[in-house]
Amino acid sequence: MSLEIRLQHAIADRRLMTYRPEEILPAVNQILFQTYVLLGFSPPNDRDLGILIAKLAADLQESYPSLTLQEVALCFELGAKGEYGDFMGLNLRTITRWLKCYQTSDLRYRAVVEREQAKSLSALPPVSEAYKEERERVFLRRVFEQYRAGCPIERLYPARVYLSLQARGIIRDSPEAKRTAMRQAAGYRPAGNMVINEEMRLAMVKQQAMGILLKRFFDKAIEAGRELLKAG
After folding, report:
1. Is residue 150 part of a domain?
2. Which domain holds residue 158?
3. What angle do CA 23, 55, 154 make, to 5 degrees?
4. pTM above the 0.85 mark?
């Protein structure tokens, strides 16, 4: 089975956010054990392994709730094969880097887009433009509330949200403000020693700049006590 097909099956699985903690632990234990075998490493003693399993299970539900257990297993397999760069030992730092690289990878992005496109093609009947606009506004308000509740901006699809708000005239940053944000983001480099060409890096810099501008907009709206879609 090709990697793309395996990934399509993986992203269709149950999301981590839907599991109870006691359901996650055995699966994490199995994934870690399989990874140690793939790497040819000896697992740590039971006490240390138990600490790692408990911490990883909690981190998965807190930081990667939209992933699935199958995706986590696939991520670890790719990491063990060196897809996310060199590493020293299988520890929480290595695992966190693998998960971040996987979650933001082009491979996963394409798979998610293809799945959403397939779902939209099978949906009957097609929804109206007014309905789509209302759903988008609900999404934007939800993102704002999540940020106000403390969710980091980088987990809230900042580039997508920024462009949506800009298209609706809610964000009206000047060209100078955009240039300033681009300068702030100019030194961005992808995590995990990912090798990319300059064109792709600049595209990522632009996304980072939109995140900077979105965060500033959200912070000002919160400071002024305004609701998102009422903020001018």
Report:
1. yes
2. 127-230
3. 100
4. no
